[in-house]
Amino acid sequence: MVTEQSFIMVKPDGVQRGLVGDIIKRYEQRGYTLKGLKLMNVDKSLAEKHYEEHQGKPFFPKLVDFITSGPVCAMVWEGKNIVAAGRTMIGATNPQASAPGTIRGDYGIDMGRNIIHGSDSVESARREIGLWFPEGLAEWTPVAKPWIY
Ligand code: RTP
Ligand code: MG
């Protein structure tokens, strides 16, 4: 089995609203492994690099302003199919189109205040993890793993 990693980030609205604990709980309960975690302020340069695929789009300046407006909780989660499954748990980009039971569907209303980011592909995850965690990740094997897979 190829174990994937994904970069998952609680955005400033999720941190301000006290949703970090619930979000961590969802990924932990599902059986994913926490490999990196930090609360941090984001400078403009990091926000622009993270969202570089959206440079030039009309919403880009507002998106960068939003991501730099307060601390975010940056995380790396690991496990089988975490990139796609992590996005399913998050819901659609627009919270209005997100099903109840998803993070955005349970907590969001506005496209520009959609609580959480998740990598959209294995390649994006690799790039984002390198960008946000240049110091590297924790090395550990959870004892519960044989009870999950
Ligand atoms: P994210 O990267 O933040 O996880 O969100 P996503 O993959 O679901 O959506 P993406 O297309 O990557 O867009 C990044 C963020 O930009 C804002 N956005 N606004 N048309 C619009 O006004 C528009 N499109 C995107 C959203 O806040 C989205 O999360
Ligand atoms: Mg995206």
TrEMBL record:
Its cofactor is Mg(2+). HAMAP family: NDP_kinase (MF_00451). This is Nucleoside diphosphate kinase. The active site is at H117 (pros-phosphohistidine intermediate). GO terms for biological process: CTP biosynthetic process; GTP biosynthetic process; UTP biosynthetic process. It catalyses: a 2'-deoxyribonucleoside 5'-diphosphate + ATP = a 2'-deoxyribonucleoside 5'-triphosphate + ADP; a ribonucleoside 5'-diphosphate + ATP = a ribonucleoside 5'-triphosphate + ADP. ATP binds at K11, F59, R87, T93, R104, N114. Pfam families: NDK. Residues 3-139 form the Nucleoside diphosphate kinase-like domain. The keyword Nucleotide-binding applies. It comes from Edaphochlamys debaryana. InterPro entries: NDK-like_dom, NDK-like_dom_sf, Nucleoside_diP_kinase, Nucleoside_diP_kinase_AS.
